[in-house]
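User: My collaborator sent over this chain with a note saying "see what the structure looks like." That's all I know about it. Can you take a look?
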Amino acid sequence: MYKLIKILFVPLLFLVSCSYSDFTTYTLRYDNNFTNYYFFQRSDIKSSYNRLIIFLDGASFNSVLGTKGSILPWKSFSIVYDLQNDLSDNFNLLVPEKMNIETGEDFSEDTVKLSYATLNSRVLSSVNVIDKFLNDNDYQYVYLIGYSEGGMILPRVYNNLKNKNLINKLVSLSGGGYSYYNLIKFMYKENDWDTTKIDSALIEIQNNPNSLSKFYLGHPYKQWVDFINYEPALEYKNIDIPILLLHGTDDKNGTVESSRYLKNRFDEWDKSNLIYYELENMDHRYNGDFSKVLKIVEDWLVKKNAL
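Assistant: Without extra context I'll predict from the sequence alone. Here is the result:
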């Protein structure tokens, strides 16, 4: 009986212990909307307060932290969990939530809240939070990092900030420069599928721009309207601060070709403020070993001569 209890108890203890460390939740309200944001204070050492990482998470139909459980504190975690575990104490961490989404919420069945998963809503909520936080807090070094879809919206968020002069460096992880249209087209070609179906779907989306009941590749038409042709690469053209771009060569969610395309655009523009690394044999989530990627990012962030 003791062995049976031990077999059942140890995994449960492990799951309960897998939770976020202490963070503070704030709420910003504007125009009948709200955005939560989460602040992770990494250290009590005063000298560490001069560095802040702002993290933009990828696409999902749940909170940027994951989903809360009914029995255990959390049913699932986002990559923010890996970030708060692996990030050194040299940085504090700010994570903006998606617009009108509660902490730990799964909104995949809520058609009203699905309407806030658009490009414009994601950018607006992030910009409002970041500008507010930087107005209220003084940091010597501020770094803006985006992962996956967060990496795609990264340059537009930066370009729309009133306080963008306070951002020192940008980091795009698995984001790249392709539009969703070109990402999907690449996926179709890789699988020998009929690419004309993409254009047919695009016409259907444009004819039903506010639909939350019609879906394409698991996302409602309303979300696709402003996202599908948005090309992150074009947003980078007038950005001159140092940028780090990382992409895994085995990424099947957002092909490495997207980041190669972005690097080529910088070469065409004769811009030298981009550093690009390909991570051999790594997938979209870096084979579950985010610590290796974060070490590269941290080392680059603290370099005085970033390029």
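A starting point for your reply to your collaborator: The two ends are 61 Å apart (CA to CA).
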